[in-house]
Inverse folding.
């Protein structure tokens, strides 16, 4: 079944009426891959109808970031949506989303300026602003986001709680290649050699998660993960590590050395011109 494609607010309103019952939204920037499809399947299971938005949001890209070269693969994206039974694709132009230069935008607060937010100032403000606009336009009952962008997901949950946005937020697990690489639209920038180096990110997370499962505390978990990154930093082409942190899943503040309970081990690095992020949820036990 081919989804209805809505490009304007009017077309979106008409399309919404054509889908009876509850609606789940999967916001995306296109360049859809198997990770996005898993979000759509999750959405299917949660509501009567599914809408996918495709919009490369200029507000969440900083100067010198990859807004211009971000992959745009609209035809393939619509075909992928059709394969999983998406009802509506909302694909607004920039003018539809931002008819005027926005004056009033969201501030992501302290949680938006740490970890990924420290490397990408303003990124989470722009992301939250567009997500709230999409929620206001589509008015879904449920919205589904990937755990791959764990800080984004935590911030969206916080925005919905702080601003009383009437939607249920659902997180869906990261999808990985068989060798561990987390699926990302940016993986298509990688040459085969760069891809090999990039595997260090998921290897580092695996090493940290294994250490945590064996009862290690925060310092040892970070140490195990750091060893993998150090090896990749010396590889050719090298990985330029950006951060490796163990944080509270809800606040993204770094956990203390005696922390027990859930945590997220998050990593980011640059290979060539490509900035990649990954994370793994883990449990830290008391006896370390
Ligand atoms: O995760 C993404 O693709 C984007 O950040 C989102 C949530 C669609 C907002 O532009």
């Amino acid at each position: 079944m081919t989804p209805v494609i809505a490009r304007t607010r009017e077309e979106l309103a008409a399309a919404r009426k054509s889908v009876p019952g509850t609606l789940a939204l999967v916001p995306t920037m296109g360049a859809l891959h198997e990770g996005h499809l898993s979000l759509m399947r999750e959405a299917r299971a949660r509501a009567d109808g599914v809408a996918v938005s495709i919009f490369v949001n200029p507000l969440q890209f900083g100067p010198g970031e990859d807004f211009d070269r971000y992959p745009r693969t609209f035809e393939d994206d619509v075909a992928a949506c059709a394969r999983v039974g998406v009802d509506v694709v909302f694909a607004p132009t920039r003018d539809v989303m931002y008819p005027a230069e926005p004056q009033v935008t969201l501030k992501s607060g302290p949680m938006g300026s740490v970890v990924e937010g420290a490397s990408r100032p303003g990124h989470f403000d722009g992301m939250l602003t567009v997500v709230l606009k999409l929620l206001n336009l589509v008015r879904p009952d449920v919205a589904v986001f990937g755990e791959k962008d764990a800080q984004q997901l935590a911030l969206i949950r916080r925005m919905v709680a702080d601003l009383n946005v009437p939607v249920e937020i659902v997180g869906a697990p990261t999808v990985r290649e068989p060798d561990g690489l987390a699926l990302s639209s940016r993986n298509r920038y990688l040459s085969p050699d760069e891809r090999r180096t990039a595997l260090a990110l998921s290897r580092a997370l695996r090493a940290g998660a294994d250490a945590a499962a064996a009862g290690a505390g925060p310092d040892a978990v970070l140490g195990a993960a750091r060893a993998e990154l150090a090896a990749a930093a010396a590889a050719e082409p090298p990985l330029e590590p950006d951060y490796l942190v163990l944080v509270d899943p809800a606040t993204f503040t770094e956990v203390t050395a005696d922390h027990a309970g859930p945590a997220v081990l998050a990593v980011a690095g640059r290979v060539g011109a490509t900035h990649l992020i990954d994370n793994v949820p883990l449990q830290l036990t008391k006896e370390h």
Notes: Residues 92 and 241 are 35 Å apart (CA to CA).
